[in-house]
């Protein structure tokens, strides 16, 4: 299946700009293309040449002009032709299974750790899929039947992750049975509740937070405990967080913002005031999603506003 058919499907719902199409792909659970600009605009150019779509440039007073794409009658015919064609059977392609196939050379602790990492990744994706389903940002809902179809698609994705989670747990149980395999917790955190408001306080980690995936792990942790409020201690952050050229701080903060997490980091004054990081801290502290404070008291006061 090509991205062109997915775009025709979206345009049969509503006319869109290339940017709007990109956002739909990014937020979708099942339209699996990356949705980068090159992919989308190449597909749109091809389909415009084939008379499957048309475009109209709309001029705006205070913003750049935008090109809006719409589906044509020929495009609708092409879409319908594909809809009634034989469905493709999904391919099973799981890298972890290839890793697991040769894992007998690992110790029980190493194998258990590998299973735990995979389980945590599945949990994260499951939580994110549930959140996407809850928000339902991009779904047509033009009829009761269409709403049900999209709901069942979401359930298909969620059940896939649930089945994978159950499989990992069953695999662990059969491999280790009654044997106790000790694993070090990656994150040491506390759930704080003050006047019916709840937040997670991340106190320490086995390894410093150093990637965007670490931010996603924290987001998943928040969702797991049904809160969107997070406090991060200085000891959990890697040195790269304070080096602007790595873009780690900006990328992590953007993740928190995108997923509606209100977060704060407790950082020593001398670190906040250091070099270019000071400029970022001043700018960040103007916002409502992420702030830096010297003390837990200040951070908590802002978090619980």
From TrEMBL:
Gene3D superfamilies from the UniProt entry: Winged helix-like DNA-binding domain superfamily/Winged helix DNA-binding domain (1.10.10.10)
* Any Pfam family hit: Vir_act_alpha_C
Q: Which InterPro entries has this protein been placed in?
A: DUF4180 (IPR025438), Tscrpt_reg_PadR_C (IPR018309), Tscrpt_reg_PadR_N (IPR005149), WH-like_DNA-bd_sf (IPR036388), WH_DNA-bd_sf (IPR036390)
Q: Which domain of life is it from?
A: Bacteria
Where the record annotates domain Transcription regulator PadR N-terminal, the positions are 7-81
- Cited SUPFAM superfamilies: Winged helix' DNA-binding domain
**Record-annotated DUF4180 domain positions:** 196-303
Which segments constitute the Transcription regulator PadR C-terminal domain? Answer: 92-175
Q: What's the protein called, per UniProt?
A: DUF4180 domain-containing protein
Protein source organism = Paenibacillus agilis
């Amino acid at each position: 299946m090509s991205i062109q058919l997915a775009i025709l499907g979206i345009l049969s719902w509503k006319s869109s700009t290339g940017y709007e199409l990109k956002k739909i792909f990014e937020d979708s659970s099942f339209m699996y293309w990356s949705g980068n600009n090159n992919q989308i605009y190449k597909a749109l150019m091809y389909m415009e040449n084939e008379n499957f779509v048309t475009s109209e440039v709309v001029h705006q007073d205070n913003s750049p002009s935008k090109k809006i794409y719409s589906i044509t009658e020929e495009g609708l015919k092409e879409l319908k032709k594909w809809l009634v064609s034989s469905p493709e059977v999904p391919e099973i392609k799981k890298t972890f299974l290839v890793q697991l196939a040769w894992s007998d050379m690992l110790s029980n602790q190493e194998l258990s750790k590998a299973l735990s990492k995979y389980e945590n990744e599945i949990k994260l994706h499951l939580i994110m899929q549930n959140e996407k389903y809850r928000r339902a940002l991009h779904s047509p809902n033009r009829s009761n039947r269409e709403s049900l179809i999209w709901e069942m698609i979401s359930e298909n994705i969620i059940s896939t992750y649930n089945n994978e989670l159950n499989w990992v747990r069953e695999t662990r149980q059969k491999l280790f049975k009654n044997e106790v395999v000790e694993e070090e917790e990656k994150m040491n955190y506390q759930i704080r509740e003050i006047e019916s408001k709840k937040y997670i306080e991340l106190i320490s980690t086995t390894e410093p937070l150093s990637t965007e995936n670490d931010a996603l792990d924290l987001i998943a942790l928040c969702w797991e405990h049904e809160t969107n409020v997070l406090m991060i201690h200085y000891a959990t952050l890697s040195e790269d967080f304070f080096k602007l050229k790595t873009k780690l701080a900006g990328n992590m903060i953007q993740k928190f913002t995108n997923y509606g997490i209100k977060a704060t980091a407790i950082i020593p004054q001398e670190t906040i005031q250091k070099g270019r990081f000071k400029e970022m801290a001043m700018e960040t502290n103007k916002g409502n999603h992420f702030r830096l404070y010297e003390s837990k008291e200040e951070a908590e006061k802002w978090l619980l506003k």
